[in-house]
Specification:
- The chain has one domain.
- Helix 1 runs antiparallel to helix 2 and helix 3 runs antiparallel to helix 5.
- The longest helix is centred in the middle third of the chain and has 36 residues.
- It is elongated, with a radius of gyration of 17 Å.
- It contains five helices and no strands.
- With 140 residues, the protein is mostly helical.
- The model has no long low-confidence stretch (mean pLDDT 97).
Length: 140
């Protein structure tokens, strides 16, 4: 059963990462659109569907299958696993911040620049590198 759980976890992570890498890119373009314009309204729909339809379920599935796999493999006492969980918690916090920014855009209250969102777009990639290294190399 462990291999199936791990496969579901990896598929969930891929889906979640796709959202975390694409959503801030949408914010970059949305920040350049005039509030209330057709373009802005289209971005609002895209962002809501991406986050609620794919991002939230993928994040929840990642947590469920990841914790299940960790339980089956007895990883809760491993140092690398604690470090990985710290990074996953940061990733989850980033997800929550992205959801907050989506609500700002939805209410036409965004005050951040395109450049800000370009910079923020790099955070999930950096976290992902750390997580993958910890999982594959298990340095401690």
């Amino acid at each position: 059963m462990y291999e199936w759980i791990k496969a579901l976890h990896v598929m969930s992570v891929i889906s979640w990462m796709a959202v975390l890498l694409y959503l801030p890119r949408l914010y970059v373009y949305h920040a350049g659109a005039e509030a209330g314009s057709d373009k802005s309204e289209t971005f609002k729909v895209m962002e809501r569907r991406l986050l609620r339809g794919i991002g939230n379920p993928a994040m929840i599935a990642t947590w469920i299958f990841g914790l299940w796999a960790a339980y089956d493999a007895y990883w809760f006492t491993a140092g690398w696993f604690h470090a990985k969980m710290a990074l996953v918690l940061l990733m989850t916090g980033y997800h929550m911040v992205m959801a907050r920014w989506r609500k700002d855009f939805e209410a036409d209250r965004n005050t951040r620049t395109e450049r800000f969102y370009r910079f923020m777009n790099e955070i999930p990639a950096v976290l992902m590198v750390g997580i993958v290294i910890l999982v594959i190399v298990k340095p401690f």
